[in-house]
Amino acid sequence: MLQQQLLDDLAAASAPEQVEQVRIKYLGRKGLITNYAKDTDFSKLSAEEKKNFGQKLNELKAFAAEKLAEAAEKTAAHSLPAVRRPTLDLTVPGTGSTLGAMHPIRMVQLELESVFEGMGFTVLDSPEAETEYGNFESVNIPADHPARDMQDTFWLQNEMVLRTHTSANQVRALRRFGAPFRGIFPGRCFRYESIDPSHENTFFQCEGLMVDENISVAHLIGVMKTLLSKIFKRDVKVRLRPGFFPFVEPGFELDLNCLFCGGKGCPTCGDGWIELIPCGLTHPKVLEHGGVDTSKYSGFAFGIGLTRLAMMKYGIRDIRYFNSGDVRVLEQFAAVI
Ligand code: DAH
Predict the structure, then answer these.
(1) 204 CB under 6 A from ligand 1?
(2) Ligand 1: which of 137, 167, 211 to mutate, most ligand atoms within 8 Å of CB?
(3) N or C: which end of the chain has fewer CB within 10 A?
(4) Interval between CA 51 and ligand 1 midpoint (Å)
(5) pTM for the complete prediction?
């Protein structure tokens, strides 16, 4: 009876002070348990009965003490959040905020765009998925051409292809704007590559095209030299060697003397030269695909390896950092507050 009454009282006690009230009620100086024996006439009890009575009373006290202790603990724990609720302390120093950074490839791209804009080139955006015609045929790479093997890539289920280069935009732009034309097309490209410090399956190029009357190799070299000296802000050594690309005739490879090793040869460049800008005079077939009168106009084109350019410019020795998603790489390009 008394036990149950105690349990009921404790169940209703939700704060430590209420538990204390219950303790006083049962075990206090005038408590129900303390005074349990008050009305008992011990003289009427046998020795055996006295002993039993004492034992019961002790058990009752122990029971009450245990339940009270449990309840005290429970309500104390329960009331903790109220006591420790975090408060706003305006005197604590702040954690500061981190600054986002522009991706190094993007930085090089923006720089290129402004140099080219200064030379009267338009900057055009372009799709990453191309038709087979756009990616290959329009730039004079028919289905049986061996150059297709060099640009093995990712085919989409709708027979489109993730572009292997930005060259398809030459014909797209000529059809849209006609000649004369000066423009660049920066963008992401994809190839089925085995990955190493200088090859990635996803990389950036910046295609360029200039079509006008009497365009010659001299114009091409002039534009390339202007570009590289502005980008590297110093004299750089370049070399031109013959190169083959189906969409230019003649075609060249413009190599940059390695800025890491000064041309001695290192893991990034190999033999001291970085293949940077393939280029050439636009093949008449490409101009024809673009609907340009080849008796009047000629042109030059180039495909700058934006990713490689960023590696050179910022001293990034491994191409895999670019797409790694490792913020420690990008953080280094954040402005310091
Ligand atoms: N599209 C070529 C590639 O990705 C690069 C290229 C070479 C572009 C010569 C050009 C060019 O415009 O003239 O390998």
Answers:
(1) no
(2) 167
(3) N
(4) 107
(5) 0.69
